[in-house]
Amino acid sequence: MKLLKRIVWRLVAGIGVLWGAATLTFVTINITGGDPAIAILGGPDALPTQEVLARVRAEYGLDQPLIVQYGHYLERLAHGDLGESYRLRIPVTRAIGQQIGATVELAVWAAVIGIALSILFAILTARRARWVRSLSSGSELVVSAMPSFVIGILLLLVFSFHWHWFPVSRTTGWKGMVLPSLTLALPVVAVLTQVLRQELEDILEQPFIVTARARGMSDIGVRLRHALRHAMIPIVTLSGFIFASLLGGAVVVETLFVRQGIGSLMVDATTNKDVPIVLGITLLAACIYVVVNIVVDLLYGLIDPRIRVT
Amino acid sequence: MNHSLPHNRNRKRFLLAALLGSSLLLAACSDSGKASRAEAAEKTAHGTSTIYPASDYAEQQRGQPGGTLRVSVASDPGSLDLHAISHTNAQWLGRILYDNLVYLDDKGNISPWLATSWDISPDGRTYTFHLRKDVTFSDGTKFDAEAVRANLEHMRDPATKSPLAAAYIAPYIDGTVVDEYTFEAHLREPYTPFLNVLAQSWLAMESPKAIRDNPKQLGDHPVGSGPFVLESYTRQQGAVFVKRKDYHWSPQQVRHEGPAYLDRIEISFVAEPLIRYNSLAAGQYDLTIDAPPQNAAAIRADDELAFDSHVRTGAPYRGLTFNTAQPPFDDVRVRKAVTLAIDREGIVQIVGFGEYLPKTDFLASNTKYYDPSFRDALKYDPQQANKLLDEAGWTGRDAQGYRTKDGKRLSAEVLSPSSGTTTPVLAAIQSDVKKVGVELILAQLPTTQVTERRNAGAYQALGAGVWHTNTPDALYILNHSKEITSAKRIGQNTAQLRDPELDELLEKARRSSDPAQLQDLYSRAQKRLTELVPGAPLFENSSSIAYHRYVKGLVFDTSHNTVYFPSVWLQKEAK
Lengths: 310, 575
Description:
The structure holds 2 protein chains of 2 kinds. Chain A is an all-alpha fold. Chain A has 13 helices and no strands. The N and C termini of chain A lie close together (10 Å). Chain B starts with 8 loop residues before the first helix and ends in a 5-residue tail after the last strand.
């Protein structure tokens, strides 16, 4: 019962967050100014007649006062209608629908690679010789400080343009996924490995580990069977960070690697002042964020019985 | 994560610098080699009009059929309904998917395509087109007079929200289907550029059935009569076109027979110039449109690659457009002085890496009726600039060395959008004109704000401007007083120029169809513009491509000098 109440409360708060995000984006876009009708018609290179301008203003409701536009906007949102893209001339939901699959695919690859590499590195380096740990944490620092744009270009220069191992953009098959998902995953790996290693090192000093070792278990066995489960908790805690990092990184990675997706759609929309798309993606991101947070909250209880809701 | 992030701020900056340095170094390693000035420059810098060889515009030999051409290009047009966009890529995309009523020949004259011939009534207001009878759209619909009517209607239908095509056919009143293959267009007034604009891809012929059944889907599912059909269009990623096997109606000028040589064209939108160059060099693409000028030298030095640059017809790149309705640029002497003070050779080196051609007059040098006689009227001359400013009464000097009159500094704000490549150009102009005592304040604002102030006439000068079209009527679009933005419409005369003499010349040219008279009118208009100085021309705007040498049959479009893909073929099967 308490769990249900908690979920309901979370959902209500989530809707509040969404409304806040919607309002904030609406306000931001409207105070930056500029006539959206001109943006719709192709910007400064256009020669629209006044008839066309009037038609556009009426069709998008731009001739009405802002507060009315805001009202209509919320009303349409409630019905799941995100409006029509200025530049692409198709419904925002369709534009996002066309692109989201590619981003999800990329994010899943990156998340899997990222988490797998982090676990691997953490297990290999926890409580090892000083130089191993310094080398490892040193490279983690370097990578986490690098913008993904630079990571991507470096990977491309080495593995695509120099050695020809992977293409920039052929999207069919696994080969085209390697560099983009690696670029997206590396910043996650850098942070996650540090946290996991710290956690593992703490756990490896716990009495139950000593017991396990005393039973004659091998070092790797101990690390895999006993320590790892505990170390999973920070991955769940950090899933918000992982999600944000993947989504933020997608903006750069998709543009760099010529991939369709929410990230490159966002870049294109921002450059071309395609307001409905920007609003749509912002809301989508807020939505996913709310859901991720609720799921994380529930997952805690499953993984760590100590936090289970009573 | 609490122990990993906060304490590395200083380090971050150092690492970033080191990494950027190394990536640039890596890129630069491959850049070494014999640097050479543009082939295009050799072709053109003879002090006259730019004349490209006829072989650039017609097939020289039959190509080998087959293969897939992999093309990279900087940006996605967003929609393939060319009536509904003004995007620059439309011109060559249109030659892949669609056909037009007419084409231009290599001298810039109108030449047949889907219309085999046409008659113009003596009053210049009725155009009768006689159409080919063997053309079909890829959905099976026949191309006929009704199709032409449906297309012109679609272009100007406010629902299409056409940013360009509608304006180009503004004088069109209505059309009559005389018989199945004869179409009569009625114009409000004589308008000789009508045929020229009909040769541009923004006014291509789309399937009337698709226009009728699915007008909202045309951007995603375009249906044309062109040599290729769309297989897939993935926004932000690319588009794939496949050959139409029964195509046999290429424009006569191109001298191409039958279907295209290539089986497929795969286009990828590669925004980053560094990636466009490197992925071409690494063999991941066969050809790149929007070849970065900074890589031109490296591309020329590579035996397997070729670089090609063609001037776009129409109006050249203007560094500044002066608002002639506001001080200080309401005084022609100030406009002229600022223009004379700009050292174009220097700017061309900064932004064009030696690839751009400096420009001092107002019509691209390969546009029909270009007259090179006035090309030195506005060339770099700081002494003359100083003299003009003295004459205009700006004789005082303030503490910072700027000129003053009645205690007021000679200063102007230049408005430009906060993205794009204008910044280094404007910064160079700013420092050049400072030497003659003029202050330019660069105001970079978001594009929509620039557009809004531009349409309200609230600016002293605008940075950057081009207008490409396949007719000298570009001069009308940019400089006629009817093209000043008003309550009635948005126009491109952002200099707010109102000169009755120029207006009359350009109007007469729109009514004339006599080549000798047109040459005279356009020559006088070009001369007049160098006296009025509505802006400061800087360089010819070119379209540059780079490709592997096994890509053959490169023919260029007579309209905008872009690649005409149906003639392209591959000497060997691409990897």
